[in-house]
Amino acid sequence: MDVRVGDILQMKKQHPCGASRFLVLRSGMDFKLKCEGCGHEVMVPRAKAEKNIKKIFREEHNL
């Protein structure tokens, strides 16, 4: 799955604050995600995160 830094992920499960959208701060074997609701940052293993992604929002830059 192609997930890049700066993407916003719509997850299947919500964060305890109620938000289900996360900003990708780092990608690799783990993802560092920032909750769009409360700003909490979490590290999630890639396999677990990819299983829970519902939709990826990406801004396309035309050069």
UniProtKB/TrEMBL annotation:
Descriptive protein name: DUF951 domain-containing protein
Family annotation (InterPro entries): DUF951 (IPR009296)
Highest taxon listed in the record's lineage: Bacteria
A Pfam family assignment: DUF951
